[in-house]
Every structure is written in C-alpha cells, then in structure tokens.
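Researcher: Please translate sequence to structure tokens.
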Amino acid sequence: MAGFAHIRCSLDLQQLEVFKGGAMAIVPTIINALLLVVIFKLSDSFRRRFEQKPASKGFHLWEMGAEEAEDDIAAIGISFSSVVVLRYAFTKQMANVLGLELPVVDHAMYAKIAIGCATLIFALISILILVCLTKFRSPKKGQGYERAQEGQEAEGRFAIVEDSQRRDYLTRWILIASSTFATAASWCGLYASKWFLYGIEIKEDEHTNPNSCISRVVLALLVSFGSFVM
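Model: Translation complete:
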C-alpha cells in the first residue's frame, strides 16, 4: 500500500503546472526518491537503537522484514513514476493521476518500439548492476548478514552479525536500484503490450477502449503468456 501511495504522490505532483511539461516532469520522481533515502536511513537508525548484543533471532526477523518492505516500496514507487515520465517523452502525452493517458490515442509506431526497447535496456541494466556488485564486492563483506538472512542458527540463536559485516546502506540502495530497473522493465513491457494490442484492436473496432475490462483481461492473458514463453 505504501508503494502505491508513493506512486500517487508522484503522479499528483506531476499534474502541477510547474512539473507538467518538459524535463521538469522527472523532478517529482527525484524528490520522492531522495525522500525515501532519508526516511529509510531514519528507519534503519531507529531499528539499530533496539539492537541487542548478541543479536537475537527476533531482531533479525524484524530487520529483514522491514528492509524487504522498504525495498519494495522504493522499487515500485520510483519505477512507475519514472516510466510515466518515459511514456511522456515518447508520446508527449502526460498520464493523469491514475496513470492513464487520456484521451486515448493510438500511439506512433516509434513510441511502441521505443518503450519495447526500454524493456530490454532496463532489464539488462538491472542484471549489470548485480554483476558489477558481485564482481567488485569483497568476498567476505556481508557474509554474516547473509548467514543471518538464510536463517542459519547456532545454539538456538541467529549467528552474531557485527556492524562491519552487515550490508551497508550504500550497498542496500545499489540493490534497490537493480530491483527498480527490473520493475521498470516490467512496467515498460506492460505498456508496450498495451499499445501494440490497442493498435490491433482499433483496426477492428474504432470504438474500442484499452482501459475497458475486456481489454485489460486480454492484455493480462497476453502478458502472462508472453512471460511464460520467455
């Protein structure tokens, strides 16, 4: 819910006249991303205040759950609002607060191809980030944290994780960046499918609506089948 609230916040800001056109459309996304950086850091500091030595199983479960939730919020919120700006760059049509492009138009073929290419580019960037992180990270760094996440216990308690072994805040945001690009690739793939499908449908029925229930069902089936094949 927090992730979608973050999306709505970005889309609301994008409707303001100051952000509604040109390069300024990306500013709300940047502002909200920086806000998440600050909030997550405060949340991390708050959890550290309740840390015990040696660290207990309950604390690790709390920390893992909180970080996973925060990471999902960032990936969903930042990726969608970024893709809204990307769609605007390709079509010159800004989505409304619901993320819909109204009035409905059949976008140019170059826009459909461009957002399809963005799907592949974002997916490759996501993979590249993980490859680079794995290559340049010290082999021993974070091993204690990973052991704790895997739930390996010693004498009925989680293994003690020192501060120096924990995943640092920068590394965490590098992983969030990878997840954000992967999620953005999913959004781009969804809209590429939607635009191509609408281009086919409108040739058969000029009154078709890509936002109708039946069109969304067909789109969901198409995307699901395509994902299965890939």
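Researcher: Any highlights?
Model: The CA atoms of residues 115 and 188 lie 6 Å apart.
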